[in-house]
Amino acid sequence: MPSSAKISGYQAERNKPMPSLNHGLIQANLIFAIKLSYKDKYSVVSELSLDLSGWESVPDVCILPKMTLDPRQDVATVKEPPLCAIEIISPSQSVNELITKAEKYFQYGVKSCWIVIPALQNVYVFSSPDDYEMYKVSETLSDPALEIELDLEEVFS
C-alpha cells in the first residue's frame, strides 16, 4: 500500500487493506462453498491471525485440517501454517503484493495459496511460488494439493 495513502484503523490493526463489498461477498461465498462440500475434511476460517515464526499475516480465508470448535478454549493467534491461505485482492492492493505474500506462505509451510481477482472473476491456485493454474468464473477450480474442486460460478454469484 502506498505510504502517501491515509491508513484507516482497520488497516492499521490488521496490517491489510480494508475490504470492499465485492471482496466480502466473494469471501463469504468461498467459505460457504468450501464448507458445503468439504465440512467433513476441512475447517474454514476467515480473517485468522497467523504468526509464522515471527511473520504475521491475516489471510482472508484459511483452510485447516478438520477441527472441533471448543468455545472454552480460544486462540487469538495461530502459530501453525494453514493448509491453504486464500487472499482476495482489494481495490488498493496490487497483484504483486499478493504474489509476494503467497511466496511467504509457502516459505512457512502452507501447501496451497489462492489469489482471487474479483474484477476479472479469476482465481489463481498456487501449488508453489512458481507453479499455478488460473481458473475463470465459468470453470471448476481444482486444487490437487487439497483435493478440492469448486464451481466458480457459485463463488462469483
Strand order of the largest sheet: 1-4-5-6-7-8
* Fraction of residues in helix: 25-40%
Measured on Cα atoms, how large is the radius of gyration? 15 Å
Low-pLDDT runs of 5+ residues are 1-5, 7-15
CATH topology-level name: tt1808, chain A
Residue-averaged pLDDT:
91
Shape: globular
Count the domains: 1
CATH class: Alpha Beta
CATH architecture, by name, is Alpha-Beta Complex
Assembly status: single chain
- Please state the structural category: alpha+beta
Number of helical elements = 4
Give the amount of beta strand, in percent: 25-35%
Largest sheet: 6 strands, mixed
CATH superfamily label:
tt1808, chain A
Count the strands?
A: 10
The arrangement of helices and strands along the chain is HHEEEEEHEEEEEH
Notes on the structure:
Helix content is 26%, strand content 31%. A hairpin with a 4-residue loop joins strand 6 (112-117) and strand 7 (122-128). The protein has helices at 9-14, 21-38, 95-107, 152-155, and strands at residues 42-46, 50-52, 55-57, 61-65, 84-88, 112-117, 122-128, 131-136, 140-143, 148-151. It contains four helices and ten strands, in the order ααβββββαβββββα. With 157 residues, the protein is α+β, with helices and mostly antiparallel strands. The chain has one domain (19-155): tt1808, chain A (Alpha-Beta Complex).
